[in-house]
Amino acid sequence: MEVLSLGEKVKKRRKELNMTLKDVAGSRVTPGQISLVESSKSNPSMDLLDYLAQTLDVSVEYFMESESTQAERICQYYSRMAEINIELEEFEKARMYIEKGERYIEKYNLILPKAKNLYLRGFYEIKKKNYTPGYDYLFQCNVIYSIHNIKGAYLENFMLVAKTFMDTGSLPMAISYFHKSEALFTEGILTDEIMLAKVYFYLALAYKKLGRLDRAKEYTGKANEKFAILSDKDSYAMFLSRVAERHELEGNLEEAGKYSAMALNLFKNCEEEMEMGNIEFNLGKLYVDFDDYQSALEHLRKAQTIFSKNTEKLVEVYLVIAECYAHLNRKEACAEIISYLDRIIVEEDFRGNIKLYRLKSKVESLFSNSRDALNYLILALNLAREKKMAEEESEILILMAKIYLEKGKQVDSYKLLEQSLKITEDGEGER
């Protein structure tokens, strides 16, 4: 890809049309005048520029586009391709695109493309779990946005930092940055309702993890007011990105830019659809925590629709739906879901089968069948021990201890709790 001066554009277009200097000049001007324009030794008047545009079948705007504007378009393409490859974890390819953009940024002193490149460097480092340099790049990016008073651009940075803090367990910091994101909407800087709903959801999740159920419930309700439901698009997006790369190699910036934009939009749509499914699923789980099973089912059914082709995620959703039906005493509906889970969870899915045994135990317990509840936990425990799944074994022992305690068998309950504690301590010792 290259940035062309006005004269270079005239010469390039003339050669594309297989025209000579004399052909272009016609009776309007001399071939020498055209040669001076092509070599940038003479700037054409608007009349001559209009004549050249008509003769060479291009727009006047094409000739008048500045070199820095061309460079910005090239950087935009490289940024899109870098972001696509970071999402795909093709890190070497992503770095290559970032560095390609950097060359144009430095040569033409492009401010906003520089900020975008700093964001991409931060995103790149965070994806590779290099958090300190990642945050540093994002801070440098925000300095540029601050100097140029581009407040709306903060959102991408705030959300990336907040999600990273939440993933690494720094909940107060995560909540702080989610609130910074929220402020961009409350102050009227941004108006994207879908994005605001996501901010509310993440605040609900962060407060839930922090144990602040009052604030979690508040933001769950806010998210619930905002959300609306947004099939396999990933393969098509991959195809479009390859088409963009082909056009890049051929030097066709316009087509490369078009296909890279389409690919990135599709990747973002796919990612957003998955995120929306996870959000609906977790909103459902939040309402389960609040004992509001009817509201939980509303969100879980939306997640069920979104994950209709994703068996793994669908199993997770159905496990919670069955629990809701049990709490609502809808025995037939609950039995139907459990029967479906029995069919789709394969024998080799040990973790899935353990979850199903635990669900069956919980359902039987809710229906006051403590003997069957205990039997299902014993089946889960045996499978966890056989497959050496220590964390699951420890959790199941605690559940069994609760049942024994409810039966008044305190000694048996304490023995199970001791076994669970030993497994936990042994695991920590190995780490």
From TrEMBL:
GO terms for cellular component: cytosol. PANTHER family: HTH-TYPE TRANSCRIPTIONAL REGULATOR (PTHR46797), METHYLPHOSPHONATE SYNTHASE (PTHR46797:SF1). PROSITE patterns: HTH_CROC1, TPR. The keyword Metal-binding does not apply. InterPro entries: Cro/C1-type_HTH, Lambda_DNA-bd_dom_sf, TPR-like_helical_dom_sf, TPR_rpt, TransReg_Diox_bact_type. Keywords: DNA-binding, TPR repeat. Residues 10-63 form the HTH cro/C1-type domain. The keyword DNA-binding applies. This is Helix-turn-helix domain-containing protein. TPR repeats lie at residues 277-310. SUPFAM superfamilies: lambda repressor-like DNA-binding domains, TPR-like.
